[in-house]
Each structure stands twice: as structure tokens, then as C-alpha cells.
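Quick one, C-alpha cells below. Sequence please?
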């Protein structure tokens, strides 16, 4: 329960309804543990319960399919067959691998690379065995990291890893991809107003029942109690944050977070505490949030190059840089009075 409670503090959802709107439409609310985190749904409409139940079942199916250590799951099978040719996989797995490659292409694998799994296992950050691997081990494992070695044959529904020892980990994109599926399920069931919080990856459908935007709180990266530093108004968007405060350990006064630079094999010293991406595509928002690795200037350039997202960068010196498309939609609400708002031009 402690882990679940901590995850819920990553990204706080602030939902407020006018009294008349609340009387007209009571939501179906579901909270459950899956994907290694707490999943929360708030769904409105005549088919809300049916939609929420379908979402829960879909999440459980994909969780088993994509968990890296699940025997019989697609990702486990793909990793076990590394260097041995193509293997048949489920359509959803083929699709997410294809989309992961496309997102990796945006930064040439510098920010996001799904073959970083050998390094993730070596560091063990977020487990009971977190450690600093030797320089020699990191150098060897970095040599296995290259998203271009994930070969996908969509016609046959199969994929391969080019070299023995390579491994795929969908942890940096799976919740984002599932967020898009969740929204599709809601739409299929006639739902027009809902939000889902997948352990900090937020997807909202439409506006709130009263017509106002949903309000999503952005956490203070150095708060110990889930305090927020601002709120962003969103309609039909995904809001995804990556940061150094989510899973980390401290050794000799230095913070080592779970997000690794695929090119160096080490947690980045990027000058950032967190990056939040707001986009129509939850999948893209999840992958793009790894711009945390790049630092402020290169991260801004990546967002501009992508062209279909807005971003909030929080730097180590407690400045909050907000892209132009969020003008009037991001509101600084810093109770600590430690952060400074900066509008990116």
C-alpha cells in the first residue's frame, strides 16, 4: 500500500464540479492496482460502468502480455529469443513496438530507447537491489542498446531482436499506449466525459460534465507530501510527467533516478527535475517525456521538432519553463513560494 500511495502522489488530479453539474451526472469511479501502480477511473454517462469494466479487463490483459518477467508474455518471449530470428507476437505488441521505434527516431534514441532494459536491470532502481554498476559493466551493456535492432514485420505480425543479450522494456511507453486504448474504449461505449490516471499518466476525454476543462496538478518535484507547483487546464489531452523524484536512490549525497541516458548508461545530469508533456496522443506524450534526459534547451528543441505537444520543464534551480501553447492554461500554484514561472518564447 505504501508504494501505491506514493505513486498516487506523482501527479494529483484536481477535479471540481459546479453543484448543478454534480447533481445531473454521478460518475462511476474505479480504483485498482495494475501495471505496478494504482489505476483510477472517473467515467460519466449511461454506459460508464460497462466502459470502466472493459478498461479494467484490457489493462490486466496487456499488463500480463508486456511485463518483462511474465513467462509466456510477448515481451518475455521476444527477449528470450534475442538473436534467434523473428517470433510471432500479438497485434498490440507489434503496434507498440512500431510506435516506440517511431518515437525513438525523433531523438535518434538519445532520449528514448526501448532496448535500454539490460541497463535498467543492472541499476535496479526502484527495486530492493538498487546499486551503481561498475564502469566496465555499463560500457558493455550500452553496447546492447539500439532501438534500431528491434525489427518488426507487420505483414507477418512478428518481431525480432538482432543480437543475443538484447532486451526490450516497454516501461517507458506502455502506460502511455494503454492510455490511448482507454480513451478509445470510452468513445466506443458512447462516453464523452472521463479521466483515467494510470499511476501519474493522465488521459482525459472531453471536458468535465459542466463544460469546463479538467484541471491536472503538476507535482513539486521536491515535495515530500505531494504538494503541487501548478495546474494545467486540459480537454481531450494526455498529461504525462517524467522526473527524478519518482524512483531513485541517493548514494554519497548524489541522486540516481530510474531514467537512464541510453547513450551513456547513467542517470542524466540534465539540470532538470521533471518534464511534463501535454499532447493528444498519450503514447507520444509518454515517450516524449523522456526529453528529461536531454536537458532544457535540447528538450525544447525536441518538442518544437515534434510539433504536436506542449511541455512544462522544471529545472534544478526551481524555474518552471512553459511552452507558448500553454499560455493561459498553466497556472502557477506554488505554496512553497520557491518556484519561478518562465514563459518560453
Amino acid at each position: 500500500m505504501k508504494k501505491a500511495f506514493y505513486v498516487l502522489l506523482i501527479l494529483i488530479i484536481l477535479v471540481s464540479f459546479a453543484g448543478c453539474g454534480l447533481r445531473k451526472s454521478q460518475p462511476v469511479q474505479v480504483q485498482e492496482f495494475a501495471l505496478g501502480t494504482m489505476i483510477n477511473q472517473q467515467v460519466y454517462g449511461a454506459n460508464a460502468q460497462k466502459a470502466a469494466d472493459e478498461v479494467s479487463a484490457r489493462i490486466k490483459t496487456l499488463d500480463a502480455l508486456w511485463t518483462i518477467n511474465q513467462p509466456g508474455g510477448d515481451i518475455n518471449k521476444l527477449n528470450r529469443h534475442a538473436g534467434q530470428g523473428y517470433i510471432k507476437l500479438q497485434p498490440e505488441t507489434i503496434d507498440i513496438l512500431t510506435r516506440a521505434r517511431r518515437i525513438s527516431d525523433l531523438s535518434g534514441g538519445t532520449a528514448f530507447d526501448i532496448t535500454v532494459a539490460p541497463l535498467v536491470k543492472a541499476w535496479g532502481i526502484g527495486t530492493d537491489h538498487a546499486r551503481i554498476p561498475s564502469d566496465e559493466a555499463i560500457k558493455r551493456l550500452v553496447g546492447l542498446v539500439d532501438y534500431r535492432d528491434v525489427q518488426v514485420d507487420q505483414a507477418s505480425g512478428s518481431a525480432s531482436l538482432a543480437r543475443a543479450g538484447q532486451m526490450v522494456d516497454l516501461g517507458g511507453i506502455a502506460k502511455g499506449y494503454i492510455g490511448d486504448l482507454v480513451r478509445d474504449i470510452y468513445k466506443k461505449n458512447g462516453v464523452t466525459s472521463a479521466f483515467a490516471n494510470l499511476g501519474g499518466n493522465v488521459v482525459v476525454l472531453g471536458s468535465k460534465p459542466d463544460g469546463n476543462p479538467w484541471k491536472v496538478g503538476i507535482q513539486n518535484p521536491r515535495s515530500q507530501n505531494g504538494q503541487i507547483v501548478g495546474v494545467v487546464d486540459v480537454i481531450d489531452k494526455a498529461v504525462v510527467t517524467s522526473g527524478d523524484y519518482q524512483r531513485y536512490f541517493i548514494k554519497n549525497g548524489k541522486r540516481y533516478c530510474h531514467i537512464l541516458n541510453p547513450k551513456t548508461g547513467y542517470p542524466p545530469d540534465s539540470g532538470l527535475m521533471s518534464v511534463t508533456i501535454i499532447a493528444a496522443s498519450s503514447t507520444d506524450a509518454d515517450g516524449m517525456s523522456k526529453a528529461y534526459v536531454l536537458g532544457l534547451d535540447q528538450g525544447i528543441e525536441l518538442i518544437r521538432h515534434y510539433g504536436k505537444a506542449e511541455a512544462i520543464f522544471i529545472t534544478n534551480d526551481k524555474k518552471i519553463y512553459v511552452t507558448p501553447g500553454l499560455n493561459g492554461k498553466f497556472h502557477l500554484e506554488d505554496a512553497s513560494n520557491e518556484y519561478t514561472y518562465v514563459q518560453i518564447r
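The radius of gyration is 20 Å. Residues 48-66 form the longest helix (19 residues).
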